[in-house]
Hints:
By secondary structure, the chain is α/β, with parallel strands linked by helices.
Amino acid sequence: MTVxxxxxxxxxxxxxxxxxxxxxxxxxxxxxxxxxxxxxxxSEVPGHVAGIVPLDPDFVASQLxxxxxxxxxxxxxxxxxxSPQILQAIVPLLPTDxxxxxxxxxxxxxxxxxxxxxxxxxxxQLLFPRASLITxxxxxxxxxxxxxxxxxxxxxxxxxxxxxxxxxRCPILAKGGxxxxxxxxxxxxxxxxxxxxxxxxxxxxxxxxxxxxxxxSAVASFLALGFPLPDAVSRALxxxxxxxxxxxxxxxxxxxxLNHSLQSR
Length: 265
């Protein structure tokens, strides 16, 4: 039996709600075989990041090199890369003929920084020119587009995403989960200035730790399965909305919920 192989370069989340653990669950749920390249080890639970240990860039590159050597990788997703040194080590190894989804992980849902400040310039210089899709949330879009304040409406989100897609010459999936309202609207902006809005009812009261990882991994998985980019994005958004709606929780001292991608299949 042959299944598409999707490769994730990201951090390890010990709570298994985000990072590589979310990528693994998503890839398997969608019928792919997910590979992982560990960039950092993160001590975290939803709402709190206790510590980050980045791995040696040469060792990160070694993982990537071996995965590409031994598996027919059909799509790649990057998540938490953390430092310019890690980016500089991996980008030359990325194949140019494989779709690349870049989730520009900058800040955790809890507000903790997940990359060094100088990494953003390296993203723009090295990684974004290779990307097939970039998936910023509202705060990340504000930084990437140098906005004075974050977008607070779907129209502002669309305007910012369109301008960024035009500047970077790369499709942008601007995630609207941080916008107010009972409906979550995400924007797919293409370099030719065309935009499409995709909306889903918001599920109230669910912490969304890891949903950005799930979404970008789902897009990469659908690309690996052979869907064109607009269809891959639409299906990935449906998948993620379902995962949020069907998440589960453990009512304990910290009472939180984690989205569980396998339940939404």
